Amino acid sequence: MVRLYNLHPFGSQRVVPCEREPARFCCGRDVLFVAGTAASCRVEAFALGDQGRCEPLGSFATLGPVLRMAHSQAGDYLVTIEEKSKATFLRAYVNWRCMSAGSSRVCVRMVGHKMEESYSETLKEQMSIVEMPLSDPPLCISCCPVSGDLLVGCKNKLVMFCLKYLVINQNLTVLDFERSLILHIDNLIPAEVAFCARHIAVTTELDVLILKLELVQQSADRTEQCAHSVSTLEKPVDGGVKDEGPSTLTSQLELDEFIICQKPVELLGEESKLCEIPVTLESTELPTEDTKCFQVQYLLFRRFTPDQSPFGFCEDTKLHSLQLLPVFRTGSPVAAHEETENEKELLSLFCFFSLPHVGYLYSVGKLVELISTYQYSEKSEQAVLTPQFLHVITSEKLQCFTVRCSAAAARDEDPYIDTTVKACPPVTLDVCTLRMQLFIGPRAICHFKNHIILLTKADTEDITERRKPTRRMLSRKADSIKSRTNSESEPGWNLYIINTVSTIQLYREMVDYSRTYENVKTESCIHLLSEAHLLVRAAIMYPSFLKSDEKEELLTAFRESCAFLGDCYSRFDTKDYHLALPYYRMSGLSMTEVLKRLVSEGDEIQTYERGLVFYLTHSLNEDLNEELSKESANKVLQIFCVADPVQLPHILCSPCMTNVCPLTAVKYLQKVEKMMPSVVLTLTKAFMALKMGDLMMYEHEMDSYKETVLACGFIGQPKLLRQRKEGIVIPTEFAVYLKEMQPGLLVAATVALHENSKIELEEADTFFKMLCSNGENTVPQLLVDFWEALLVVCSQEEILQELLLRLTSQYVWRISTQELPETKPLKTTEDLINSCSHFGLIFPWVTSIMSLSSPSDKGYHEDISKLQSLLCSQSIDITSVLPVLEPLMEAGNVGLAIRVLCRTRLGKYEEAIEQLLEKRPDVAVSYAQHELKDDSRAVWWNKLLPELCKRARLTGNDCPVLISSLKETLSLVAMELELRDFLSLLPEDGTAAFFLPHLLQCSQRKLLT
């Protein structure tokens, strides 16, 4: 579908003062080349300036009539196909600008001809004509806008010439060409070729083929082999489209006298290999270390059939206007001269070609796809594609269509552009005609920057018609139209330079035009504003944008267009209402500014569309730094009460709504509660009650549910407890009040948030530290309570070990520094042991050790017991906490218990027994009875018994504890070992009499069992 708008993309026009009738023309960087008809055999050059000013630069003779011509920006050379004596010649005109300086010296040489030393001083002041002989007549040409390489189309082949820069001396560099590659294509007579960044497009009368030359990595020893190799593609698979060559079709016409039309075909990407058009590469450049080896990648093949109509067969159906349009990465600098051309980074590439009544625009960069189809109102003569427009000429009109190149390129540059942060109008947006400008006999067209060059040739009877005042070319800027004053200067042709209006001017007109559709056709309004947005986006994507005088004006227009689109998606009921959010974000408008644009003052009853609600919901739910005024916040309340009352509790918790009137908020919440009561709504009302200082209302709301339900209610809206400002977690007034009055509920709620991935462990640390106003390195008791409570429910091993390590560190720090917690812990050791498997029962021998603790340990009994309980469990990784426990290792009985616990957990039972015998021998047997089991049972007789005997002998009867422990040990060992093994353990120092009564008793007991 093509939309029609009556805009004015064309401004003033000027007539090019050609001395001879134009036949061909093309544009360069800042120059227009015009080749005369067959009688003149000359090319005139004109300098193009601002507002279409055109000044003659000079002219030079050609070998014969020019059939084709093209200019290369890289190298600034003009290449032509000329005819003389029924033969065609390919020539490149280098250093042609010296002709405008008055020099008449011309050097004609063959391509690759070595420069003679005698020319070295004069080459600067003369034009060089480089003749490039070919084995077959050249049919069409194209210059690469990036590299300056030349592609020549001949029958069944394409020949590529590389642009070379030859350094004659430090002050002189001349251009030359080297025939580097031949693409042999069977049964193909090219009508047009296009060449850009190793992409090749070629058309016949009804076929389009797009290829890409891919570099093949070659090792150094294969350079010579690569230079002379012929790379032939594999034969296409069976079932592909059979290509009927021109010779085959001709023979069929001669023999059968009727036309066989093949089926239309479109093959994209990998499928285009099925076209059965084999391409063979032949490298012709001399092998060097820098020799490049290529292979062919098929991108697109399309075959059309002649148009059929009720009036019969149309013989004029032919493709025309083949063009490759590159789009470079945003901000890439435009090359100031040839040597920097390669610095431009290609972002996207587009291919355009046209039939008489329809044009096709494809993206052939990262993804090969059809972007737009252009339906013409009448038969087209020629078309030219620019990043912003498609200009088409018919028999009497110049038409301007919009294009989607900037939309596709924006997505190539940023694949994630269609998000809640950024957006761009779709590539599939309907194209539109901005203008149909009448001209008499348009024949050819080309484009240069913001100028269109148009050649018109009118029939004799049309000349008088043209003079009538009713047939004015352009009404705008009529004073700049240069008219001819005598009859001799008014033949049936004219070459016009039509100045297109600036991007900003056309953008303003589009915006003004869109307002006529605001209340009538919302879809058309959005479409026009999208067109305006893409127009500005395309201008911003020009490589020269960063150096443009309109840079700031274009950026302002870009943001303004985003704001207009945001307004549309907010005000209108459209399926794409969600786009209001990204467009408003790109506009840079604040929420306050958006509200002023959309919401009427004092309007209490209003319908609010989904787009506005979507934008406000997302904006308020994110952690923005903007605080709405009281009036704006209350207006937001009204909007949500009307449009989406369920969201009211969540909206009120946003940091942006800090200044909201709590009384008004409660009034709206009470309305919602009658329809949809919820825990989150109750908590929000309690929050508002605190803001008002109404504690009775607060208590009433909090008593509506049990504490466990309230804790889970915070999961539905964590911002009731904590908010973020500039990335920092900040407790709310609600959290501050709970900390003082209901710390258990606060801790339970925070645990619930963590377990539901609403708050991270580090965030919780910051939250409690800020809440308790402790230093950054100080851990408040409420945070320890949180860790302990989280340990009860935590199931993730990584977090579990982190919590165990943190708690251990905190207990050790308090015990070692004798620092009491600032608030009473929420849970005792007994509570934790009963509710959490990670807190183990404290071993009896540990209790025995601690029974003789010093009075100074009494104040830290809870932390000591919690630490011992952790070490008594099987959850903690003892190796990870050893460095943390180091400060307590020498702290009396506490240190002894910890040392023995650590050695026990590490399986070092003998070292543990030595520690106990050294410090607390009375606990040794109790420890052994509890710990020395199963695989460690042998420690009884291998370690404990010998040590007790040794220490008892040394102390004598002065240590009854050792004697008692020895007796208990002997009783167990005698029951476990055979009599002979037991006897072998007795000391041989004459003290056997001590053991004899006990030995007899144990032996009798053994026999009885």
TrEMBL record:
Domain BLOC-2 complex member HPS3 C-terminal: start-end pairs: 505-1006
An annotated GO cellular component: cytoplasm
Annotated Basic and acidic residues bias: 476-487
One of the Pfam families matching this protein, by short name: HPS3_N
Region entry Disordered, spans: 466-487
Domain BLOC-2 complex member HPS3 N-terminal: 3-485
Highest taxon, organism lineage: Eukaryota
PANTHER family from the UniProt entry: BLOC-2 COMPLEX MEMBER HPS3 (PTHR28633:SF1), HERMANSKY-PUDLAK SYNDROME 3 PROTEIN (PTHR28633)
Protein name: HPS3 biogenesis of lysosomal organelles complex 2 subunit 1
